[in-house]
# Entry
Amino acid sequence: MKAKFFFLTTALFFVNMLSAQVIEHEKLLRTDVSKAVEDGWRRGGVTNLNFSQVYFSNWAAGGENSYSLNTLVNVFASYRKDYFTWDNTLIMGYGFMRQPTLGFRKTDDRFDFTSRVGYRAFGDFFYAGLINFRTQFDKGFNFANDPQGLTPISRFMAPAHLIAALGINYQPNDNFTFFFAPLTYRLTIVADKTLSDQGAFGVEPGERTRSEFGGYIRTAFTKNDFEAEWLRNVTFNTQLDLFSNYLENPLHITVNWRSLLALRVNRFLSVNLSANLIYDPNVLIADAEGNMATRIQFQQLLGVGFSYNF
# Structure
């Protein structure tokens, strides 16, 4: 875990260093972006770093020392030329908090890469193929049932989800896209032997993978050019993924809904509010009494800190 944390922290550190270098050469960046758009490429993204720390010494009101760190890297590269399109996005996030009595606990952990190619069929409709890969960097624990964090319930590549889909993509502008794929393969990977032996994340006990064939929908909306003056520094992004397994309980839909609202206070300071809702019929989650059942998963993050858009 320490090695993975060191690797992730180092990678995110260098990403923020690169962002700082981009700031120093902002005029050159504008020129490069203009050329890139002419060449068919649009590249950009957001890096965000939030840190908080609390220290007490002989404090009559009570309290406990703590510190926390949250990082987010959200980048994209899109190509448009004649009848051909190619969209790539990469989202990496990691966060943790540390208290003497609770120890180290992560607050965010994600790796999400998507690549979609398309060829114009007619109008704003494209024949399209999509690949999406999701996993996490670090171990996860159910602290409600395991306060000491002794037994991981997830880790790197356990689970990992791979989606390969063929279908039609409707994209009338750069802000909205609707992708429908009647031919979709979904692979769930549980690389950890202990978790696979338990049948975690829908795999058969002892198996490392689970294959599904079905239909897939991905719709996304992004808005960062609001006309109202008080919304000029606001960016909103939401994305909804739906998957139905044709061969097993097709009405039990797997849902992954992510939203991000970002407010740019000034050149370097921003406020970000993100939410992620997941419902996966194949994933059983224990409550405080240890009862296993399919449950709605929800995560919400509010961060105030350093940010740079490029």
